[in-house]
Amino acid sequence: MATKRKLPNSDDIENVTGDASRPKNRIASKKHKYAAQDVVVENETVFVQLLKMAGIILKSGNRSNEMTVDHSVAQKKLYQGLRKHPRYPNVIQEFVSGLEAHIETSDKFKNCLLPCGHGHDADAGNHLNSYRESLFKLLLGIDTLQPAVLNTLFEKLPEFMYESVNEDGINMPRLIISQFKWLDRIVDGKDLTSKLMQLIAVAPLEIQRDIITSLPEILEDAQHNDIGKELNSLLQQNTQLTVPILDTLSSLNLHSQLLAEIRQSVMSTLSAVELEDLPVVIKFILQAVSAADAVEVISEMRKKLNLESCKLPQQIQASQSRHKLKGQPSSSANQANSNNDCVALLLDVIKSAVRFQKATSEAWIKAVENLNSVVEHKVMDFLVLLILHTTNTNNSKKQVEKVLRNKIRVGLIQEQLLQNAFRNYSTVLRDYFPSILSLAQTLLRSADQSAVSFGSMMYKHAFTAFDSYCKQEVISALVTHVCSGLAAEVDISLDVLIDLVSQCSSSVALYAVFLKGILDYMENLSPQQIRKLFHILGMLAYCKGHEGSHIQDDMHIVIRKQLSSTISKYKRIGIIGAVMMVSSMSKTRADGDKAMDKDSYRQVTALLDLVHSCIKNSPEASALYYDEMANVVLKDNLAPQIMEHIGKPVLENFQDDYVVDLVPVVDSNNLFPTKALYNLDEEEESQGEIVINLLPLLSRDIHTKVGDVAAASEQSGRSVSPMCLAPFFRLLRLCEEKQHNGNLEEIDALLGCPIYLVELELLEKLEPLAKQEKEFLCDLLFYAINWFREIVNAFCNQKDPEMKGKVLIRLKNITELQPLLEKCLAVTPAYVPPLASFDSEVTEAIPAMNPAVQTKKGKKESGGGRKRKSDESKDSSADNTQVDENQDGDNSQSEKTQQEKENGDKEEGKTLVNLSTYRPYFRELDLDVFTILQCGLLTRSVLDTEMHTKATEILQLGPAELVFLLDDLFRKLEYMLISATKRIHFLKGKVSKDIGFSHLRLKSRQQVAESAVQLLNSLCNHLENAHNYFQVTTSENHGVVDGPGVDLKEYQLMSTSYQLLLQTLRTLFAWNGFSQLEYRKLLKGALDVLAGRLKEGDAVLSLDELVRQSFHYLMNFRSSVPNSCSALSLTQLLIVLEEKSPDAQQKEKIASLTRSFLGQAWVLPTGEKERGNKYNETLQNLLCIYLEYTSDVLKAIEDIAGVGIPELLNSAKDGCSTTYPTLTRQTFLVFYRVMMTELEKSVKGIPAGKSTDASELQIEKLLKWNLAVRVFHILMSLVKVFDSRPVLGVCLKYGRLFLETFLKLGMPLLDFSFKKHREDVQSLLKTLQLSTRQLHHMCGHSKIHQDTGLTNHVPLLKKVLEVFVYRVKAMLTMNNCQEAFWLGNLKNRDLQGEEILSQSSQQESKDEDSSEHQAREAEEEEEEDRSDTENNDKVQDDEDENEEDSD
After folding, report:
1. What CA–CA distance (Å, rounded) separates 492 from 981?
2. From CA 902, how far away is CA 790, in angstroms rounded?
3. What stretches of 742-800 show up as alpha helix (H) in DSSP?
4. Do 208 and 200 form a contact (C-beta atoms < 8 A)?
5. 445 CA to centre of own chain
6. What whole-number distance in Å separates Cα of residue 263 and Cα of residue 345?
7. For residue range 577-633, what is the model confidence (pLDDT) as tens digits?
8. Pairing label, strands 117-118, 66-67
9. What is the mean pLDDT of residues 902-928?
10. CA 116 to chain centre
11. CA distance 1232 to 153
12. CA 243 to each of CA 248, 284, 732: distance values in angstroms, whole numbers, following the listed order
């Protein structure tokens, strides 16, 4: 029985199963019942016998073959059996034939492909430590069998190509292919490669992919390049195999040249790759890139990589959002998730590349930097910048911030791109939230408004697109900005919070506790910022559907505390907070139904009563309350009950406080005799006239301030101050407009009623008056002007012609009172006017202590100019000086107005005042006021006592009124449309630039731009009128500006209005909002107005055509510009238009226009030529524009230097160039500085020479450098004639820069051009040597005169001169001509070429006590290279400096 339990040995199995036709043993043990179908294969073939001898037992059926010995042992035994077989090598063929016969059945074939099992007689200890390969794997490891076995497998594979996976889950083709992997040796690699490629060509797609992905594991390194070429060609034929091919190529060891070819092929198909394949494609490209061509490859790759084409259509997105709301998954949602996953994988690939490859990181940044148009920038660029910021490889975080900031500043990366990124890839962007937050913080702190706006948009999108954690982080970051104390940061952050609360108040309300904490930092906030803060908190506290009681309580506590304070700063906070709270309570509670509930009404009225009780004795607080409430009435839709509660007492109180009946005799207790002036209704009513009680109120206010208790006791419980007159009236008229739909009939008597002032004759004799009396008159005039300004604000929109006429008269009254105010201010030094803007600190609006300028008589004191120059020379560089010595006498003249020149010596000795210094003390004009510009001629009827028309008066806008309006309009547009991009001030100055624009800030930039566009027709009318005026004036005086019939005052006003009109148009069209698509329609509307002035038509024109016609329209004004400033304004306007649609012809016209302006003698109507610092600045701008837009800068500079300046030298002392009349001895420095600057800038644009350049290209570059060097020499030579300190400073600075550019870009050209163009190179170096020698002379001159401003340039210049000498020597050595170079001694000379004595000699003769340090600074000799002129092969080179210290 014991023997029966033993496992049968191989001989037993062989006997039992040797013959398949033998009857099966029915009484076999159950242990051997694996039996009928799983029998051992046994026959007498060489194949079976040799395998059996090697320890391999073949099975049929589902049992795997068995290996009784280790794999390597079996392989060795089989190899030895074959070699020792008597029929070797023929036995190999017999063996293979037996193999082929054995695998004819699929089960046996499968068994041979699967790993062999452990034989029953194998050592159990080896089962765990040995691995049995398949039979085919074993056979392929024997060199003598490998070719035949490979053929057998390749012949067998087609049988299974189109079969599906077996029931046991075995993929036969994949199993066959796996036999080729990881072979120790391949006998014939080329044959194997050929067979694999043939198989790929005919196999189905799935098998193709399996074979391709297996190639790196099959082939040896020697076959990698061959298979790489084959796969490259296959890649171009079948894009479905892109992913497996690139996966395989990434694992192959390929030559760099072949890799570059393959990469180029991949790049050519990149635009057609599916989104899910992109990660693999990009991974291959980034792995295959080298440091040398990384920038080029990545630039091309990002150009073809377009994620926008892979985004979901709008319909699918809408379906996705609907399913999301229903809580149901959708196919579109799955597609979106799949797309986002693919993009995330793509970004991970890029992240890995930039993290581990330094060249890739730098190349991405460089590729993005090189983009020059808005269209070229893609969402992918923004995503890559986020990756680089996140990885921070090679300090890429700072580089990303710099690149992004610069791109935003110039408008290349716009908010539309950011919006697309968040709309389509918010899920992907969530992974980069820390970088988004960091970039937003950095941009928000930028000094550029466009970067700030972009940063604020990043905050908004991050809040709306991301989860609750991100929302909380965004709110926390914004609160941190608000509490930073930096004004610009605070403003922008509050604006972002306002937008977020307006758009998604429910989300922001969850984080209200963070916002509430800002209340503790209000002391550092400005009134405008406090207003925004309370607006935010008010919206959250009283927003429907949210419980904001805790915010309401905190706001009430803070407001009550601030209102009760005796300090004006805190009281102002309380007033602003209370008014904003009233606005929030009234507006939000009244939404839906107009009636407020009693509890809300009671809260509002109680808060208003509290405010009234706290401000009644403070005029500044009362005025602030009136202005704040007026803004709320204007902007918000208050409930009717609240409007009635506010408006009814306002009318009554205003009448009681400021309006009295007109009586002949006025109280004599006033400081000056009182007279009612500026009455427009005296013909209409004989009785019951009213008057504004200004002077008596001001007198009473003065008595109160000086402690007159009797006068003060006359007051009721509420103080009445003239300071509140204008703010109170503004609140009154806005309440009337709201309650009567814009009709002001209830208060129209105030438009024409007089005002109590003093006799105007009194203002002619101000000197004898006391200081208090002068200040009283100044106060009176300020209040009167501000009253009229508010009157104009109130009634400018009225349609009645009579009222329009009165508004024009009130404008005239303002322009009449302003000169009187200037006289008063001139004799009242250190005077501080009464406040007109109450939402700012009192100290912020105080003007300079000495706004009045004393005109000087006679000549300046002798030596004063030189003294000042000497002092300046120690502190500043010479190239910052605007004028030379010849201009010293022009400064005072440039400050004079045309009126002063008209009066001549009569005005000398008097003090001049510029009212622009006092702008913060005038009431702000509303934007609606400028509709007056649209008024033509108006007729005003003058009535007699019986109300019949006595006469008809024609009214129109005069030049003074036009200038007044245009000046204010220009400042408003500049503030909102242009200065807004530059208004980021982190260091708070003495005077806030926001003062005077409180009402304007209530409007958006778009609203301001739309209002300006509506005025365009009127502005064009006034511009054409001014054009006609100057045309007629010039023709009447036969082309002479200073003719006898010219009205100087009118001419000056028309000149000013002409310039203001051009500046206003330029400011409007320069608004950067026009570059955005959403405002493109508005831009076309504005251009259509200009184009329509030429010819009217109904055809819809393209933007380019509109720009062209508008440009042509404005060019017509070039013949009538009255002065250089207007010429510059016209040129700048044309440039702004040209930038909207760049065109070569328009650039040529701009260059031609500026050339004509430079060739025009600008003469004032007084007969004098324009001069002074302002004129020099204008000329500098015109010349810069001319050289920028001309087609050939070098020729233009050569024309000025070679023609204009010699003409100037040949003219009289006060003469000018005939070709360029603007070129005089006074303006020479301006021309010289610009020419040197533009020369240095232009040579930077000449490409560096390369060895691969064609001969024609080398000649072209040499010609450019020859011209540049010739012009440089001409400019250097002028120093001998114009040797002033500023000119020397320009030479030293830009001479060094020119030489540095020549070394960098010019010398490589000479290196490769010397042999072919020796004479040209020799001529160039000879000319340049003369210039460098002159520079050396300047260095000596600077040291001798010990001018610090000049000597600061000397060390760097001498270094460049020395480098230049040895660089030329290197060039000659490179071209085997070093014998042409030798050094000699050069004596130190001054500017005129005279030899400079050694410093030791000078010290003995001048000052023996001078310091030893100064003696050592003198340079004794300098080395220079010379050439042998007798040898044509030798080139003369530049000099070298060889400084030696002398005792």
Report:
1. 12
2. 34
3. 749-752, 771-795
4. yes
5. 13
6. 20
7. 999 988 888 765 444 455 677 888 888 889 999 999 898 888 999 999 999 999 989
8. parallel
9. 73
10. 70
11. 86
12. 9, 10, 76
**H or E element in which residue 1386 lies:** strand 1382-1386
Q: How do strand 1422-1426 and strand 66-67 relate by DSSP bridges?
A: unpaired
Q: How is the chain split among helix, strand and coil, in percent rounded to 5?
A: 65, 5, 30
What span, in angstroms and rounded, lies between the C-alpha atoms of 785 and 344? 65
Q: Give residue 158's identity as a one-letter amino acid code.
A: P
How many C-beta atoms surround the C-beta of residue 833 within 10 A? Answer: 22
In this prediction, residues 214-238 reach a mean pLDDT of: 83
For the chain, the average pLDDT equals 78
β pairing state of 949-955 and 938-943 = antiparallel
CA dist 1305 and 1310 (Å) reads: 9
Instruction: Take residue 867 and report the two structure tokens written for it.
Output: 């003294």
- Rounded Cα distance, 1227 and 1234, in Å: 11
Q: What is the pLDDT of residue 1387?
A: 62
Residue written as token pair 């208790």 = 709
Ramachandran assignment for 477, one of left (phi > 0), alpha (psi -120 to 50 degrees), beta (any other): alpha
Rounded alpha-carbon distances, angstroms, from residue 1329 to 927, 1333, 1439: 63, 6, 7
Helices (H), 1218-1375: 1228-1243, 1255-1277, 1285-1301, 1307-1313, 1318-1345, 1348-1351, 1354-1374
Q: Are 546 and 509 in contact (CB under 8 A)?
A: yes
Query: Closest by alpha carbon to 361, among 352, 370, 374?
Result: 352
Mean pLDDT confidence for 774-799: 93
Q: Is the pLDDT of residue 1407 over 60?
A: no
- Euclidean distance between CA atoms 698 and 701, whole angstroms: 5
Tokens 């050439």, located at residue? 1427
- Buried (b) or exposed (e) across 590-620, using 16+ Cβ within 10 A? beeeeebeeebbebbeebbebbeebbeebbb
Tokens of residue 977, six digits: 């449309």
How far is the C-alpha of 919 from the C-alpha of 708, rounded, in Å?
32
Phi, psi of 592, deg, nearest 5: 90, -60
Instruction: Give residue 1178's pLDDT band: very low, low, confident or very high (50, 70, 90).
Output: very high
Residue 33 has pLDDT above 70, yes or no: no
Alpha-carbon distance 350 to 338, whole Å? 19
Calculate what percentage of the chain has a pLDDT beyond 90.
21
Strand ranges for 22-155 from DSSP E: 56-57, 66-67, 117-118
Strands 675-677 and 659-661, how do they pair? Answer: unpaired
Strands 1422-1426 and 1382-1386: antiparallel
The confidence score (pLDDT) of residue 1082 equals 92
970 pLDDT more than 90? yes
- Rounded to 5°, the CA angle 1176-1178-1184 comes to 100
**Tokens matching residue 141:** 């490891």
- CA-based R_g, the chain, Å: 46
Whole-angstrom Cα distance, residue 1330 to residue 902? 51
Three-state SS string over 1038-1063 comes to CCCCCCCCCCHHHHHHHHHHHHHHHH
Q: How far apart are CA 1039 and CA 548, in angstroms?
A: 75
Sign of CA dihedral 1252, 1253, 1256, 1261: negative
1164, pLDDT greater than 60: yes
DSSP state of 223: G
pLDDT of residue 962: 93
Task: Give start and end residues of each alpha helix (H) in 305-431.
Answer: 314-326, 331-356, 358-369, 379-391, 396-409, 415-429
Tokens for 246?
């690139």
User: Residue 979's pLDDT is what?
Assistant: 65
10: tokens are: 């191989």
User: What is the pLDDT confidence band of residue 833, given thresholds at 50, 70 and 90?
Assistant: very high
More confident site: 1251 or 1118: 1118
Counting Cβ atoms within 10 Å, is residue 370 exposed (0-12), middle (13-18) or buried (19+)? exposed
Query: Is residue 675 within 8 Å of residue 784, measured between CB atoms?
Result: no
Burial class, 373, CB count within 10 angstroms (exposed 0-12 / middle 13-18 / buried 19+): exposed
Query: Would you call 1207 helix, strand, or coil by DSSP?
Result: helix
